[in-house]
Amino acid sequence: MSGRRARAVASGLAAVALAGCTDAAARDGNGTVDVVTTSYPLQWVIEQVAGPDVAVTNLVPPGGDTHGFEPAPAQVVELAEADLVVHLSGGLQPGVDAVLEQQPPAHLVDVAGLADLDGDPHFWLDPLRLADVARDVGAVLAELDPAAAEDVAARVAEVESTLAALDEEYATALAGCRGATLVTGHEAYGYLADRHGLRQLGIAGIDPAVEPSPARVREVAETVRAAGVRTIFFDAAASPATAAALAEDLGVTTDVLDPIERVTPPDDYLDRMRDNLAALQRGLACGG
């Protein structure tokens, strides 16, 4: 564990301990521990490691806009009253960042300190980074509810195994793609690209709401021609207009990648990750 992640886990454990929020003290009148998450990937990973006595609520409704989400007054109260809030700070959700800065909850785990971010918040697109977070948040949950610690440890081991297997699926499928250029609507796939030796080039930057400059579009077009790129990927939750127009001009195809910020049941994180892998296999200029 890196020094930064170790400090983040220690901070989360200290917040729980200092509040005396353990076992029965952490439970509501129904005998459950209430955990509030602020984005879908965090909801998914907490649900994998939490025991049956943990109630997990995600502030953003299924299919909702993670980036533009603004908590309603009732949700501000929900954050304040939760036994534990799990959040990713740093700009993915500016509206939630502002609320938590103004009214810090008693027990907060900031995943930004667990995932070793380098400016891109989309760490969950690398399954092994998500496994690290599962393990570290599991340690905080075990401290919050010691009676369930053994159950939490078993669930952590299971999700680590699942995510390692998913990473191996990617590694096997993309083995022939190392060095390929991955052109995306915006730069949400850096961790995935780094893990598998791809070169990400986003038409827009990390924030999909910022329109790319004409100079950036020209740069991408030049790279597409020079690198023999055959597919431009756009985000499932964003307008494909820029990517589609550029692809038409260059005579290449388009396909969809999902940053897995908006997920509607029955789909889940694993489904969307496998959809992304299938799209990469179809669209990357590698392996045939």
UniProtKB/TrEMBL annotation:
Molecular function (Gene Ontology), one example: metal ion binding
InterPro entries per record: Bact_metal-bind_prot9 (IPR050492), ZnuA-like (IPR006127)
Gene3D superfamilies xref list: Nitrogenase molybdenum iron protein domain (3.40.50.1980)
Transmembrane segments: none
Keywords: Signal, Transport
Cleavable signal peptide: 1-19
SUPFAM superfamilies: Helical backbone' metal receptor
GO biological process: metal ion transport
Family: Belongs to the bacterial solute-binding protein 9 family.
Name the UniProt record assigns to this protein: Zinc transport system substrate-binding protein
